[in-house]
C-alpha cells in the first residue's frame, strides 16, 4: 500500500521518466525504433527499478494511469525528436501495455487520444503485450484487431516463455514477435534450431522478429545465422534517458 500511495503521487508529481532502448536493424546497421521503459526517480532514493513498482501498479487501475502516461509521454518525445531533427528524428517507439490495460475498455480510446494529442501517425507506435497475457486473454484479441485497424502495430513480448501454439501463431493478431532473452542466452543447439524455426515461421506469417537481451558479439552472429536481423540489448545500448538517446543511437549504428 505504501508503494501504491507513493506511485500515485509519483504520477502527479512528475517523478516518473521514460528511458529508451534502441532496436538495431542488422542489415542496414540503423536504429529505426526504440522501446520505452518506465523509471521512477524517487526523491531521496534514486532510481527505483520497475520490478519494484510495476507489479504493485498491476494490482490496481493505477497501471492504466501509468499506461496512459507512458503513451502520451513517449509520443510527445517522438515529436520532440522530430523537431530537433537529429539522429532521433523519425524514430518509432514500442510501449509496454499491461494485461489489465489490455482488458480495459478504455485502451483503444487511450491510444487514439495519445496519437491525436501528439499528432503522431499510428504506424510509429507499437504496443508490446506479453505472450502470457496474449494467450490467456483470447477475449482481448478483438481489441488488438481494433488497434491494428487504426494502424498501430502489436508485438508479442517475451515470446517463447508462454504457450502460444503453432496453430495460434497463425491466427494471433500481431505484427512482431520479440524473442525472449532466455533463447538468446542459450547455446544449446536445439534451442538455436528452435529460434531458426520461429524466425522462419514469423517470416512465413509476415511477422517481424526482434531478439531481446543481446549482450555479446557472438550472440549477434548466432542470431544473424538464424535469419534474425533485428536486435535489442545491452551489447548495443542500455535503456537511456531521452537526452542521451542521440549518442546511444549513434553508438549502435
Ligand atoms: O528495464 P526493465 O527493468 O525496464 O523493465 C522491467 C519490466 O517492467 C519489464 O517486464 C517491462 O516490460 C516492464 N515495464 C517497463 N516499462 C513499462 C511500462 O511503461 N508499462 C508496463 N506495463 N510495463 C513496463
Ligand atoms: O519485459 P520486457 O521485454 O518489456 O522488458 C525488457 C527488460 O529487459 C527491461 O528490464 C530492460 O532493461 C531489460 N534488458 C534490455 N536489454 C537487456 C540485456 O541485454 N540484458 C539484460 N539483462 N536485460 C536487458
Ligand atoms: Mn517489452
Ligand atoms: Na521482453
3D structure, described in words:
The protein has one domain: EAL domain (TIM Barrel, Alpha-Beta Barrel). Helix content is 49%, strand content 22%. The N and C termini lie far apart (44 Å). The protein is of the alpha/beta class and 253 residues long. Strand 6, helix 8 (166-169) and strand 7 form a beta-alpha-beta unit. Strands 1, 2, 3, 4, 5, 6, 7, 8, 9 and 10 form a 10-stranded mixed β-sheet that branches. It is globular. It contains 12 helices and 10 strands. Manganese (II) ion binds at residues 35, 96, 128, 157.
List the defining traits of the structure above.
12 helices; single chain; binds manganese (II) ion; alpha/beta; binds sodium ion; 253 residues
CATH homologous superfamily label: EAL domain
CATH architecture type: Alpha-Beta Barrel
Oligomer: single chain
Percent of residues in beta strands?
15-25%
Task: Note the gap between the termini.
Answer: 44 Å
The count of helical stretches stands at 12
At the first level of CATH, the class is Alpha Beta
Number of domains: 1
- Extract low-pLDDT stretches: none
Give me the secondary-structure category.
alpha/beta
- Number of beta strands: 10
Using the alpha-carbon principal axes, give the shape: globular
Helical content stands at: 40-55%
Order of helices and strands: HEEEHHEHHEHHEHEHHEHEEH
Largest sheet: 10 strands, mixed
Question: Over the alpha carbons, how many angstroms does the gyration radius reach?
Answer: 18 Å
Amino acid at each position: 500500500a505504501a508503494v501504491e500511495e507513493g506511485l500515485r503521487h509519483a504520477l502527479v508529481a512528475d517523478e516518473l521518466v521514460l528511458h529508451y532502448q534502441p532496436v538495431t536493424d542488422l542489415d542496414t546497421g540503423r536504429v529505426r525504433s526504440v522501446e520505452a521503459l518506465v523509471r521512477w526517480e524517487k526523491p531521496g532514493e534514486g532510481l527505483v527499478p520497475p520490478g519494484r513498482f510495476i507489479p504493485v501498479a498491476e494490482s490496481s487501475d493505477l497501471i492504466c494511469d501509468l499506461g496512459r502516461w507512458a503513451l502520451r509521454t513517449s509520443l510527445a518525445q517522438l515529436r520532440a525528436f522530430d523537431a530537433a531533427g537529429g539522429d532521433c528524428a523519425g524514430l518509432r517507439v514500442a510501449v509496454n501495455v499491461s494485461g489489465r490495460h489490455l482488458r480495459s475498455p478504455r485502451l483503444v480510446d487511450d491510444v487514439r487520444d495519445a496519437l491525436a494529442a501528439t499528432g503522431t501517425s499510428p504506424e510509429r507506435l507499437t504496443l508490446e503485450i506479453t505472450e502470457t497475457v496474449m494467450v490467456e486473454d483470447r477475449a482481448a484479441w478483438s481489441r488488438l484487431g481494433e488497434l491494428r485497424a487504426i494502424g498501430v502495430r502489436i508485438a508479442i513480448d517475451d515470446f517463447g516463455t508462454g504457450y502460444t501454439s503453432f496453430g495460434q501463431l497463425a491466427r494471433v493478431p500481431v505484427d512482431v514477435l520479440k524473442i525472449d532473452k532466455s533463447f538468446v542466452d542459450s547455446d544449446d543447439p536445439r534451442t538455436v534450431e528452435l529460434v531458426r524455426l520461429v524466425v522462419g515461421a514469423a517470416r512465413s506469417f509476415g511477422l517481424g522478429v526482434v531478439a531481446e537481451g543481446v549482450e555479446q558479439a557472438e550472440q549477434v552472429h548466432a542470431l544473424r545465422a538464424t535469419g534474425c536481423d533485428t536486435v535489442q540489448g545491452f551489447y548495443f545500448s542500455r535503456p537511456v534517458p531521452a537526452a542521451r538517446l542521440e549518442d546511444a543511437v549513434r553508438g549502435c549504428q
